[in-house]
């Protein structure tokens, strides 16, 4: 059986990491049996989550995990899409992972109130004398990566406006369809769902979340995906109560 290593439940989400969420949803899409274990990034072959173990083989990075599933189990996440549609789905995935994701990181890690409420607790189990230094170092490293992503070079309002342009593109692509590319979910839906749920979770307050909520079809899409792939998770009630 496949073992998926992730962060686990938190921040009002069934999985803290949008990339782990992507892989978990793709495992569900493929109908593959798996078990899930908590891990921290240093345990991964590439120093990041998710990674999986499959019959003694460790595969890290959500994109390479998808390729492994397709190759070993013969599952086509983009079945039914023609060549142009597959290229389009890949382009949207890159936009989500290299632009929308970093906006999410800024809202969680750079905003001091959200950091204190969320990521700072990753270090609660560290020795008390080292805890605050570990938090400061981690936040600094993430903020540095946010700067290198490009979004962090702009004023707070400007980085949100840039992110909203990507959300607008996703909203237009989705339109009134149930999924990004049509009537059935494809691999990119797992990616979009992970990032959008991470933005829309009521656990964090941010201008990014406020702007994302204005795209009614994206909010309904996340509700629909959550109900389909995490039916046991109390998502919609918590969002409506927020």
What is the gist of this entry?
With 242 residues, the protein is an alpha+beta fold.
What can you tell me about this protein's structure?
This protein has 242 residues and is of the alpha+beta class. It has two domains: 75 residues, 3-Layer(aba) Sandwich (Glutaredoxin); 161 residues, Glutathione S-transferase Yfyf (Class Pi), Chain A, domain 2 (Up-down Bundle), CATH 1.20.1050. It contains ten helices and four strands; from the N terminus they run E-H-E-E-E-H-H-H-H-H-H-H-H-H. It has a four-stranded mixed beta sheet with strand order 2-1-3-4, covered by helices on one side. The chain is globular and about 55 Å long. The mean pLDDT is 94.
Layout of secondary structure:
Blueprint (H helix, E strand, L loop, with lengths): L1 E5 L11 H12 L4 E5 L12 E4 L2 E4 L1 H12 L9 H28 L1 H6 L10 H22 L6 H19 L12 H14 L6 H6 L3 H14 L6 H6 L1
Parallel strand pairs: 1-2
Antiparallel strand pairs: 1-3, 3-4
Helix pairs in contact: 1-2, 1-7, 3-5, 3-6, 3-7, 7-9
